[in-house]
Amino acid sequence: xxxxxxxxxxSKAAFTDAELEQLEAAAIVKKLKRREHLxxxxxxxxxxxxxxxxxxxxxxxxxxxxxxxxxxAIENWWMTDPESFRTGLPAQGAIEALEDTQxxxxxxxxxxLVKREVPAFHALENQLAGHYLDAQVNRLYTAIxxxxxxxxxxxxxxxxxxxxxxxxxxxxxxLGVSRETLSRIRxxxxxx
Length: 192
Prior knowledge:
Elements: H1 2-12, H2 17-25, E1 28-32, E2 37-39, E3 47-53, E4 55-61, E5 67-74, E6 78-79, H3 82-87, E7 94-97, E8 101-107, H4 108-117, H5 119-145, H6 148-158, H7 168-175, H8 179-189
Helix pairs in contact: 4-5, 7-8
Keywords: Plasmid
Protein name: Crp/Fnr family transcriptional regulator
InterPro entries: cNMP-bd_dom (IPR000595), cNMP-bd_dom_sf (IPR018490), RmlC-like_jellyroll (IPR014710)
């Protein structure tokens, strides 16, 4: 598990062996079963997670108990409830494993510590935060300016590894369309 994380880090920036060991020592290894929650709505998000294997989703539930998926994460992706992790306030969302999943977790304290003590990791975190913000802006723009067909095409293009692993109803939720609409779009596009 640690080897996957090491490979990820060294593909992103230059880390010394001592820095890698420090990052690994600060992490907690956790295995989640399919449908097991890493975070429940109302709990404080205490961890930043790196997905070693499997997949996660971050979602919120509205007043009618309808789920709205905000984010997916598969291998070599990061996951947290950013607002709760940053502020220490109760989470508005929940994080659930979509498959049996292995993650590395850093508490907020350890996260801040390794960012201070490992400059390359702090720079990587800043870069990832920038990419996350850009992705959220692009997702919002796509949601308000494109048809459901275009949103699905953009999703498949941007996340080719996701659409084959994630249940159709969850992709529909992420795109803000009904499952029936997504089934129609997929059929017209030649997906079966």
